[in-house]
Design goal:
Layout: H1 6-24, H2 30-36, H3 41-69, H4 71-90, H5 95-108, H6 111-123, H7 126-140, H8 142-158, H9 161-181, H10 196-207, H11 210-231, H12 233-240, H13 249-269, H14 275-299, H15 309-330, H16 337-363, H17 367-393
Helix pairs in contact: 1-6, 1-7, 1-8, 1-9, 2-3, 3-4, 3-5, 3-6, 3-16, 4-5, 4-6, 4-9, 6-16, 7-13, 7-15, 8-13, 11-15, 11-16, 11-17, 13-15, 14-15, 14-17
């Protein structure tokens, strides 16, 4: 496949979408899983924590492995392991076996996201890189919308185990598409050894960079403002809005349309707007949405569409700033883009994992506390960006 092929963005986006599919597809099945495996709601919630924690750990290494073995090998190996992990989940006889399968999914599910970012920067610079990053984000954004709808449909037709069979088939198809069509973008001469001392120095250099941590932190906190609602979807949609397991699209479709709009605007403005202008406008949109969300949560009875609208508006700003912030972070270390992408993903998923295991259960008690959580995460993202900006201008 030529590097300019329009299918490249679709394959990279689908590989990155393994992550949200692994989360969103089975959310409607939480009550059914608890009943089938005689598990408590907290035990079922911990299947999400098990996935997120191991996902966060392994994304720290996908990039280094891809810098050594090449991009294709790491993606192919990870997708094959994800197929096996999904089958373990589908056949799980107890909640402990489901935890095991989710751990294996977490170990393999982040490779497409991490390595895909490095592939984009291997191929393109400047505005071209931002356009492709935005296109991948736009296609990737569809996953959170259709995943719970697919999950709800499979749950109604064939039960919760069918969700994990679907994930196995999806990963198997991506394994073939990667083998058949994805080019290797890292020449052998540009690869790095896996020597522990050299790796330690490389990780220390990236994770010891204050500028990198601030930009990566901005990406992580911005995304977590929306991801809080993904993690709390059963409580928010079923508990507070009174919807059924097959009606999760009421939140996910509008929020994904917001991400598509934000990503499309980012791609259209690449080369016309400087990164700073794009990011400033995105934060203005997120800030307005967060304030509106708090006001609705405090003053209005929960319902459709007003309880969902601010979350959808928030995703427009989030998707607008994400490509620019991601490229700024990766460009700090052009010789180790894979490892830098791993470190960025590790920071993002670590925040997500803490939210999944600790913060989301504390905040999903009411729409107002969820809105306050979104506003808090957005404020932290803005603080990180402003601190980075002061460093650059100093």
């Amino acid at each position: 496949m030529p590097a300019s092929s329009p299918w490249l963005a679709a394959i990279l986006a689908a590989l990155a979408a393994i992550g949200p599919f692994s989360i969103d597809t089975y959310l409607p099945a939480f009550p059914a899983i608890a009943a089938s495996l005689a598990a408590t709601p907290i035990e079922v919630q911990q299947t999400l924590t098990a996935y997120m924690a191991t996902f966060a750990f392994m994304v720290l290494w996908h990039g280094a492995l891809a810098d050594h073995f090449g991009r294709r090998r790491v993606i192919l190996g990870s997708m094959a392991l994800f197929v096996l992990a999904s089958l373990v989940c589908a056949l799980a006889p107890s909640i402990e076996w489901l935890w095991t399968g989710r751990v294996l999914q977490g170990l393999s599910g982040g490779a497409g996201m991490v390595v895909g970012r490095a592939v984009i920067r291997d191929l393109y610079d400047g505005a071209q890189a931002q356009r492709l990053m935005a296109r991948v984000t736009m296609i990737f954004a569809i996953a959170p919308a259709i995943a719970p709808i697919i999950g709800g449909g499979l749950l109604a037709i064939a039960g919760w185990r069918a969700v994990f069979v679907f994930l196995a088939l999806f990963a198997g198809g991506l394994t073939y598409l990667t083998w058949r069509y994805l080019p290797e973008t890292l020449p052998a001469a540009a690869r790095h050894p896996l020597h522990p001392v050299g790796l330690g120095r490389a990780y220390a250099k990236v994770l010891g960079s204050g500028a990198f941590l601030l930009v990566a932190g901005a990406v992580a906190f911005n995304f977590n403002g929306f991801f809080l609602y993904v993690l709390s979807a059963p409580a928010f949609l079923i508990g507070h809005l009174g919807l059924g397991p097959q009606q999760f699209g009421w939140m996910f479709v509008p929020t994904v349309l917001g991400m598509v709009c934000g990503s499309a605007l980012s791609g259209r403005m690449a080369g016309r707007w400087q990164h700073g202008r794009t990011i400033t406008i995105g934060f203005a949109i997120m800030g307005g949405a967060a304030v509106l969300n708090v006001l609705i949560g405090a003053l209005v009875t929960p319902g459709l569409p007003w309880s969902v609208l601010p979350v959808a508006i928030y995703t427009i700003g989030m998707a607008l700033v994400m490509p620019s912030l991601t490229l700024i972070a990766l460009d700090r270390f052009p010789a180790r883009r894979g490892l830098a992408s791993s470190c960025q993903s590790f920071l993002q998923v670590s925040v997500n994992a803490v939210t999944a295991g600790v913060l989301a259960p504390l905040l999903w008690s009411s729409p107002l506390t969820l809105a306050a959580g979104m506003a808090g995460f957005m404020s932290l993202g803005l603080l990180c960006f402003l601190s980075w900006q002061r460093r650059v201008e100093a």
